[in-house]
Design a protein that fits this description.
With 324 residues, the chain is mainly alpha-helical. Helices cover 87% and strands 0% of the residues.
């Protein structure tokens, strides 16, 4: 978690609440991965050993565990996570508004009207999104837990397969999650600042349109609106392009990994891998590792985007620290 976001959470008094929600949601993906891998292995073994009579009981057993697992996740989501998200939005806006009211006129003029509107709305949403929205901090923690659990199990099943899986994943992960997207926050911050300027120019159109026409200022205002709109679009386009390249290398990593798995699995059959059922089980955990890496990568991209809003909120709530 970013230091500034952590400071905002503590200032709102919601640090412990977020930790509780995260701990409750953390095991879902890992348990679902274990359940799915063992289900596939069990079914294949029953088919191989001609134990088809046991298939119905195995199916109902795994179905029961699946229903219980998803019921648990739905309960945590609907009763705790959603309420915590609403509380976060409310407290964050109240805190920003209180910070505005505590300032004198000169301090209020530090930011334009459009900048204030952007910070209390779009930037507050981005800050809350960093913490609670899909494919952000919460999902990054869940995916990391799943990645660790799947890796540990794969070590016990076949350490060679784990080593080659990491050999494929790590370089692509560094390239897509660190190298390619390092400038995304810069572009997104520029877009947010351009949006604040856009709001400033839209205000006179809404409130003083007749006056602008009387003084022949329409061309100037429309030119400024077009200029800021194009800047917003240009900065967002740069960020989206980097995100697309990051996703491309993620997919490339997954493709190479599956080809490697097929080649190695065929050569190790009967030696390092006992039978086809075990190979499929290894495939499931290897797939969960890839899924975890891709999810973490997507979460990092989204978090970097939302962090631009959190930094702007931090500047308002902690002006002294923000200048350091």
């Amino acid at each position: 978690m970013d230091r500034k976001v952590s400071w905002i959470l503590k200032e709102l008094g919601l640090w412990k609440t977020l930790m509780v929600v995260m701990i409750l949601r953390l095991p879902f993906d890992s348990l679902n991965a274990i359940l799915g891998a063992n289900l596939l292995e069990r079914f294949l073994r029953l088919i191989q050993t001609k134990g088809r009579d046991e298939l119905p009981s195995a199916f109902w057993t795994f179905l029961l565990f699946t229903v219980l697992l998803f019921a648990y996740n739905a309960t945590v989501w609907s009763l705790i996570s959603v309420k915590a998200n609403l509380l976060l939005h409310r407290k964050l806006r109240e805190k920003i508004l209180q910070s505005m009211l505590d300032r004198n006129g000169q301090e209020m003029e530090q930011y334009s009207a459009g900048d204030w509107i952007t910070r209390i709305n779009a930037d507050a949403d981005r800050t809350a999104g960093y913490l609670m929205e899909p494919l952000n901090l919460m999902h990054a923690a869940i995916a990391t837990c799943n990645l660790i659990v799947s890796s540990v199990i794969l070590v016990m099943l076949n350490v060679t397969m784990l080593a080659f899986t990491l050999l494929v994943m790590v370089p692509f992960f560094i390239l897509s999650s660190i190298v390619i997207i390092r400038k995304v926050p810069y572009y997104k911050r520029n877009a947010q600042e351009a949006y604040a300027a856009y709001t400033n120019w839209m205000e006179p159109v809404a409130n003083a349109g007749e006056t602008i026409r009387i003084f022949d200022g329409e061309d100037i205002v429309l030119e400024k609106i077009e200029e800021t709109s194009l800047k917003i679009m240009a900065e967002n386009r740069k960020a989206h392009k980097l995100g697309a390249w990051s996703m491309f290398f993620n997919v490339l990593s997954g493709t190479f990994g599956y080809l490697l798995l097929l080649l190695m699995g065929n050569s190790m059959m009967g030696t390092g891998i006992r039978d086809f059922a075990q190979l499929m089980k290894i495939t499931q955990y290897r797939g969960q590792m890839m899924l975890g890496v891709m999810c973490v990568n997507n979460c990092i991209n989204r978090m970097k985007t939302n962090l631009t809003g959190a930094e702007r909120v931090y500047e308002v709530l902690a002006p002294g620290e923000g200048e350091q």
